[in-house]
UniProtKB/TrEMBL annotation:
Upper lineage: Eukaryota, Metazoa, Cnidaria, Anthozoa, Octocorallia
GO cellular component: axoneme
One Gene Ontology MF term: beta-tubulin binding
Database matches in Pfam families: Casc1_C
InterPro entries noted in UniProt: CASC1_C, IC97/Dnai7-like
Designated name of the protein: Uncharacterized protein
Composition bias, Polar residues: 59-69
Region of interest (Disordered), residue spans: 38-71
Length: 355
């Protein structure tokens, strides 16, 4: 948003059109109202002594501009934000400060946002580039997550976050938004549109839905730190068996330490979500994996191994021990495309550490 000088307009004289030729560059104008208050402020600021220090001069110039702008009549701005972007809280409006090359919050007031109509209203005392900001990690940490089979080489990946319940369907090498529960349902344009994981991640971020932590997310979000090698191995083993086994968040994952991961898992042959009594607790480390006596409803954490079970080298061999013939067949027939798609989503969301 800026204020420009109107270029010279053509004049028609009889059959002639006279045009003043000027350089093809717009000339910006300062926003100054012709009031006595502004004139007094400008006059007093012009009397300031010179300062040889460049940084102090820049600060003085900025302060002078702010004082001059403070006397201007406020500009009432009304604009409609894109309808395909989710805003989970009132957007933060900021203006660009060219003298210091950063965004500022001052000079903006009476900010109002209607999440039903997407109308944003605010007042500003100057013309400047305007940006809308939203907390990048407001949906983290996740409240829970679940991945369950939806047929051979197909599964449903659900993330319950602070402001949205996101359901992603995976089939072979493609995935799509199957369901998204938020206050205003702004992801309708993505539902049922199949695409590769990297494209879906890009589209979701562009739509204001960020459930994909960046490398610096741990500085802003409380998380359960886990051994990176173990975490990646668990994602791969879950992806390899996702056609036959359901996996879910466990409250005990935060109590078992950095070197171990605790999740819920169960074999699932039907397309219905597992019942609460169907889940078993599994604990995995870089050395072995086992089924625990523990349940989600126990009062304290215990790493006692369940009866009539064996230790296995990893989670994959643990869940496959005692699996039905149909489950074994589905795992053997799992395609690399499906495995790769699920693995990309799990590694991008990092649900084991951000839940």
């Amino acid at each position: 948003m800026d204020l420009f000088e109107l270029p010279p307009q053509p004049k028609v004289v009889k059959n002639w059109v006279m045009q003043h030729i000027v350089p093809p560059k717009l000339v910006t104008l300062p926003y100054v109202c012709g009031s006595k208050k502004n004139e007094d402020v400008t006059s007093s600021e012009n009397d300031l002594p010179n300062n040889d220090d460049t940084e102090q001069a820049a600060d003085g110039s900025t302060d002078q501009t702010q004082k001059v702008n403070a006397g201007n009549a406020p500009i009432h701005v009304t604009l409609r934000l894109p309808a395909d972007v989710s805003y989970f809280e009132q957007p933060q409006v900021a203006r660009w400060e060219p003298s210091k090359n950063h965004w500022r919050l001052d000079g903006l007031s009476d900010i109002q946002f209607n999440d039903q109509t997407n109308m944003l209203r605010f007042k500003t005392d100057r013309f400047a580039p305007i940006a809308i900001f939203q907390d990048l990690y407001l949906n983290m940490p996740f409240q829970s997550w679940e991945i369950r089979p939806h047929g051979l080489n197909s599964c449903i990946f659900t993330i319950v976050a602070a402001a949205i319940d996101l359901e992603i369907e995976v089939k072979d090498s493609y995935c799509c938004v199957a369901h998204a529960e938020d206050s205003v349902q702004r992801l309708r344009h993505l539902r049922g549109k199949w695409m590769y994981p990297k494209d879906l991640i890009k589209r979701l971020k562009a739509s204001g839905v960020n459930v994909f932590p960046s490398v610096d997310a741990e500085k802003y979000v409380s998380l359960n730190m886990k051994d990176s090698t173990l975490e990646k191995n668990i994602y791969d083993q879950m992806s390899l068996t996702a056609s036959a086994f359901a996996y879910s968040w466990s409250r005990w994952n935060s109590d078992c330490g950095k070197e171990k991961i605790v999740i819920q898992a169960t074999e699932q042959e039907t397309d219905e979500p597992p019942m609460e009594d169907d889940w078993f607790i599994y604990m995995a480390s870089n050395e072995n994996s086992c089924k625990l006596k523990l349940s989600e409803f126990d009062e304290t954490f215990s790493d006692d191994v369940a009866e009539n079970t064996k230790l296995h080298a990893d989670l994959y061999h643990m869940v496959m021990d005692g699996a039905s013939d149909s489950a074994v067949t589905k795992v053997k027939e799992t395609s690399f495309q499906f495995f790769n798609c699920v693995s990309q989503l799990l590694n991008a969301t990092k649900v084991l550490t951000y839940s």
